[in-house]
Write a structure and sequence with these properties.
The structure is a single chain. The protein is α/β, with parallel strands linked by helices and about 260 residues long. The chain has a single domain, classed as Rossmann fold. Strands 3-2-1-4-5-6-9 form a seven-stranded parallel sheet, with helices on both faces. The chain has a two-stranded parallel sheet with strand order 7-8. It starts with a strand and ends with a helix.
Length: about 260
């Protein structure tokens, strides 16, 4: 049986990089996408000695033609993607009214538009083969509004809703869709988002990227519809279903606020 091919976006560091290591360990060939070609080359050099094929593509998926370019390139090369991991995404800290427009639209372009378009392009070939897996990486942010990161939280709520809906549509097709929801994780995300000094990271703590990635890997390979990494994150996510929305929003803001 030929080895399957896994496409991972945002694969140059953090959870994406750790997922790439797990898939390589189990002899899956890789297509790794991120903006930094140099970082991707380092990852490829590390993983190729494990006997897997590693193709790297330096691409900014927030640019409108990028998802189509990526799909068309792999089609031309005859590369069928068996597992799609939509991991690329970013957040930005600050009040919505003063946040730069490029930060707002960039989050929507990458976290929502690119993820949706990649899913739409790679899903039909999977359905034709009656085999495939999709993992969309959301966040525990998907379960509540997020003052001071309003757009990021909203984009992750979209990912959760979208993924659960298509998972239902795919029942019996041989293809699964998994929404993976990590909580705070030690990656470059907090530095990029400007949340390194938030209560969430400074006082409440974050999980390791290795542990989070393993949870995600197990979830997608088992075909679970929704998976939350960490028991404490699961409890917090579930609690938002029963608490008054005003309280949920206030707590969410308190967690996001910066501390000395």
């Amino acid at each position: 049986m030929p080895a399957s091919t896994v496409l991972i976006t945002g694969a140059s560091g953090g959870i994406g990089y750790e997922l790439a290591k797990l898939f390589a360990r189990d002899h899956h060939n890789l297509v790794l996408v991120a903006r930094s070609g140099d970082k991707l080359a380092q990852v490829a050099a590390e993983l190729q000695p494990q006997g897997v094929s590693v193709k790297t593509i330096a691409l900014d998926l927030a640019a409108p033609p990028a998802a189509k370019f990526l799909f068309d390139q792999l089609q031309r090369e005859g590369l069928a993607v068996d597992i799609l991991v939509n991991n690329a995404g970013f957040g930005a800290f600050g009040e919505f009214a003063t946040m730069p427009e490029e930060e707002i639209l960039g989050q929507i372009s990458l976290n929502i538009t690119a993820l949706t378009e990649l899913t739409r392009r790679f899903l039909p070939p999977m359905l034709a083969r009656r085999s495939g897996r999709i993992m969309n990486v959301a966040s525990t942010a998907a379960f509540q509004p997020g003052p001071l990161m309003a757009v990021y939280y909203a984009t992750k709520a979209y990912v959760l809703s979208f993924s659960e809906a298509i998972a239902n549509e795919l029942r019996g097709s041989g293809v699964t869709a998994t929404c993976f929801c990590p909580g705070a994780t030690h990656t470059g995300f907090a530095r990029r988002a400007g949340t390194e000094n938030s209560r969430l990271f400074k006082q409440l703590g974050a999980m390791s990227a290795e542990k989070v990635a393993l949870d995600g890997y197990r979830a997608v390979m088992e075909g679970r519809t929704t998976a939350i990494s960490g028991a404490h994150n699961w409890i917090v996510a579930q609690s938002t279903r029963f608490a008054p929305r005003r309280m949920v929003t206030a707590v969410s803001r308190w967690v996001a606020e910066k501390v000395e």
